[in-house]
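Propose amino acids for all 292 sites.
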C-alpha cells in the first residue's frame, strides 16, 4: 500500500512539473520591458516630434520611427532593457520577512490543517515506526510575477505523535512526538477562470529539520531523530476569490525530505545509529490569503 501511495505521489509531482513548465512558457516576457523605461522614452520622443509626425504623415517617416522604438528590448534586443537585475532584486526584497516591492502585487497567507506522517522503518532490527495523524500550521509571503505565476516563501510546522515501534514482528508502544520545521520556496501556477473558484498547482524546494524523541515504554530505550535535510513538496489547490484582496483556499500537499539518521540509546547512555529515516507526509490544509 505504501509503494502504491509513493507511486501515486510521484505521478502527481510529474503532472505538476509539466503544468508549471507550460505555465512558464505562456508567461508574459516583454510586457514589463516595453511598458517601463522604454514606454517613458517613447512618450517623450512622441511629444518632441509630434509636429514632425503631423508634417510627414504622407511619407510615413515618423510612423516608422515610432514603430521601431516601441519594439526596443523585445523583437530587436530580446527583452534586454536592463530590467532583469531590477526584477530579481524586487522579487528577493518582496520575499523577505519584512520586505516590500514597488513593482509587483504581493500577498500574505496563513494556513493550518491535517498531516498524515507515513510509517517508516526498515532494517534487520527495526520493522517500522507507526505515527498518529497530526496537524500542520504555517504562513507564507508571496509575489505575483504576472496574472498566472507567483512565487512565495513559506514557513511551516508539522507535529505528529508516535504510536508504536515494530521489531521482530512485535509492536512495542512508544511515547513521544515528531516535529518538523520547514522553510520552502514555492512556485505556483494559477489557472484563471471567469468564476470565483480558481485551481492551481505548485512545486516547492527548501530545507526542513526533524526533531523527534521517542521512548519505548518499559524498556528504558530512547529513539531520536534530530537533523536537517533537503525538503520538497507538490501542491494542488483550489482558491475561492472572496474579493479583490481576500481569497480562501484549500490544498493537498505531498511533503518529503531526504533521509536522515534515526538513533537509539539506553537511558543515560550514548546514541548510536539504528536506521535511516525518511520523513514523508500527506497534508490537507485550509487557509486565507490577503493581497497588498
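Proposal:
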Amino acid at each position: 500500500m505504501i509503494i502504491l501511495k509513493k507511486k501515486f505521489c510521484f505521478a502527481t509531482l510529474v503532472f505538476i512539473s509539466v503544468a508549471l513548465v507550460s505555465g512558464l512558457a505562456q508567461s508574459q516576457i516583454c510586457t514589463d520591458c516595453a511598458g517601463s523605461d522604454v514606454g517613458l522614452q517613447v512618450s517623450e520622443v512622441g511629444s518632441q516630434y509630434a509636429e514632425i509626425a503631423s508634417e510627414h504623415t504622407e511619407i510615413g517617416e515618423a510612423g516608422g520611427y515610432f514603430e521601431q522604438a516601441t519594439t526596443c528590448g523585445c523583437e530587436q534586443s530580446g527583452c534586454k532593457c536592463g530590467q532583469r537585475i531590477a526584477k530579481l532584486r524586487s522579487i528577493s526584497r518582496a520575499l523577505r520577512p519584512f520586505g516590500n516591492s514597488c513593482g509587483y502585487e504581493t500577498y500574505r497567507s496563513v494556513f493550518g490543517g491535517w498531516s498524515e506522517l507515513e510509517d517508516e522503518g526498515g532494517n534487520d532490527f527495526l520493522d517500522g515506526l507507526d505515527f498518529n495523524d497530526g496537524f500542520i500550521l504555517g504562513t507564507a509571503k508571496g509575489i505575483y510575477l504576472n496574472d498566472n505565476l507567483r512565487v512565495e516563501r513559506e514557513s511551516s510546522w508539522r507535529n505528529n505523535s508516535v504510536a508504536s515501534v515494530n521489531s521482530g514482528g512485535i509492536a512495542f508502544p512508544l511515547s513521544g512526538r515528531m516535529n518538523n520545521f520547514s522553510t520552502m520556496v514555492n512556485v505556483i501556477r494559477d489557472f484563471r477562470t471567469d468564476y470565483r473558484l480558481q485551481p492551481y498547482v505548485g512545486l516547492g524546494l527548501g530545507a526542513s529539520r526533524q526533531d523527534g524523541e521517542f521512548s519505548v515504554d518499559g524498556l528504558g530505550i530512547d529513539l531520536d531523530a534530530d537533523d536537517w535535510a533537503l525538503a520538497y513538496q507538490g501542491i494542488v489547490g483550489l482558491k475561492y476569490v472572496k474579493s479583490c484582496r481576500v481569497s480562501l483556499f484549500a490544498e493537498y500537499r505531498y511533503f518529503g525530505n531526504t533521509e536522515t539518521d534515526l538513533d537509539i540509546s539506553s537511558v543515560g547512555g550514548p546514541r548510536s545509529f539504528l536506521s535511516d529515516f525518511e520523513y514523508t507526509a500527506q497534508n490537507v490544509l485550509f487557509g486565507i490569503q490577503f493581497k497588498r
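The first helix runs from residue 2 to 26. The radius of gyration is 26 Å.
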